Amino acid sequence: xxxxxxxxxxxxxxxxxxxxxxxxxxYSLVYSIMSFSNFAHGGVIMVGAYVGFFALTALKVxxxxxxxxxxxxxxxxxxxxxxxVYSPLRKRKAPSLYFIISAMGASIFLENxxxxxxxGTPRNYPTLFSNSIKIGSLSLGLDSLxxxxxxxxxxxxxxxxIQKTKIGLAIRACSYNEKAGTLMGINSSLVIxxxxxxxxxxxxxxxxxxxxxxxVKPTIGQVTNKSFVAAVFGGLxxxxxxxxxxxxxxxxxxxxxxxxxxxxDLFVYALLIIVxxxxxxxxxGKPVEDKA
Amino acid sequence: xxxxEVRDLNVYYGGIHALKGISLDVEEGQIVSIxxxxxxxxxxxxxxxxxxxxxxxxxxxxxxxxxxxxxxxxVKQGICQVPEGRLIFANLTTYxxxxxxxxxxxxxxxxERDLKRVYEIFPRLEERKNQIAGxxxxxxxxxxxxxxxxxxxxxxxxxxxxxxxxxxxxxxxxFETIKEIKAMxxxxxxxEQNALKxxxxxxxxxxxxxxxxTMSGPxxxxxxxxxxxxxxxxxxx
Lengths: 292, 237
Prior knowledge:
The complex is a heterodimer of chains A (about 290) and B (about 240).
Chain A: H1 2-34, H2 41-57, H3 63-91, H4 96-117, E1 132-135, E2 138-141, H5 142-164, H6 166-176, H7 178-183, H8 188-213, H9 220-223, H10 225-234, H11 239-259, H12 264-278
Antiparallel strand pairs in A: 1-2
Chain B: E1 4-13, E2 16-26, E3 31-35, H1 42-50, E4 57-62, E5 65-66, H2 71-76, E6 79-82, H3 94-101, H4 108-121, H5 123-127, H6 138-151, E7 156-160, H7 168-183, E8 187-192, H8 195-201, E9 204-209, E10 212-217, H9 219-224, H10 226-232
Parallel strand pairs in B: 3-8, 3-9, 6-7, 7-8
Antiparallel strand pairs in B: 1-2, 1-4, 4-5, 9-10
Helix pairs in contact in B: 3-6, 4-6
């Protein structure tokens, strides 16, 4: 009985962690190339959740189509933000503080843009998968299973792109030294474009998963800040770090919540502060001296 | 027509006038050395040719054509810089570093051939091809930086302080390699603090002082010049 309870919580934790991972790799990818925390990412995730919601309710498209639309919508949005907001700053070689503040501005803009154009009321996704399958005495909801599969497959594809393709090699090179990358003939604008596109697509997937599991409202971008905590915990700038950090954070968060659900956010943000004090490079990150 | 023609180049860093009307020529197939003390503007000049540093005025012609302004497009023209401090990708393997040198190339057979060639010149790099480049010794990292340069199949290869911080024995190896690269038919622009070595290998050389070219001529001739001997070769008068 007890074991079953813990296993169930573990599965819930992996679901949550997988979703965090989809979000946190976006933070990590951008940080690894541009050395700043892209807080507009929360807004991109939120817009993804809305795209999915309206695709399902207004356009009444099948789940898979809605899911892909989320990726396309958020991917485009991330690229547009990069072109409109960060690209001018890059050309001026602005300090990273300017990027962070502009990112926060973009995030607040997106939130209010949605409130102004749609409205601020929370919405629930239609129930898509209510069935569950039994594995032994463990009951696994189809929606949970879907979350785990989607996260795992998306992250696997991302890792293959980063580790095995030419553009992936260029991304890894530029993440170490952009100037040296340029001397190899790498177009750093293209690298940045691809990084925002990939981060954005995964953010869209994550937004839809979030909406299906919880709720859609303009402020869910703030909730997704927890995935930023996961990225810091795993080591900002490191992709494997972001994934491991997210899974651990998801599992820990669920177990803390099972003790007392009001401790949930307290725990997550306390962890952020503790990591920054004790080991700012996180579990797998580079030493902070490398990239301020 | 020279392969590379630099005409009246002016570069400012903030308020500092780093290069003050530099002109120089690099003939195809030659080694051209630029010597000068710290802060004379040697690296600024190289970075300006490779497009990393923007110039305020002046012209750079490569085979009679103006170079594009973006550094990554200049590589495509056949100019490759092996930068000071090597700037290898310490997070990637030796092999990945070399392959990045060939980033713009599409000729798979040619890339394979050049990779073999690099491994012939630097057998150490083949032994360590799967090792993370950050764990290589300083000399091996310099070899990697030069090998990576060769992998881009450049017509003009610009070496910025290749002997900096290396043990004397390794310095000799590096200069032997420079001759080998010349023998491969490449043109070389070499910036060095080690004036004796740089002038010895040079077909032509320039002396850069405080952003100006103060002397030029065949390497052997400059080697015999008494003012150079005193200022750069450490000979007493």
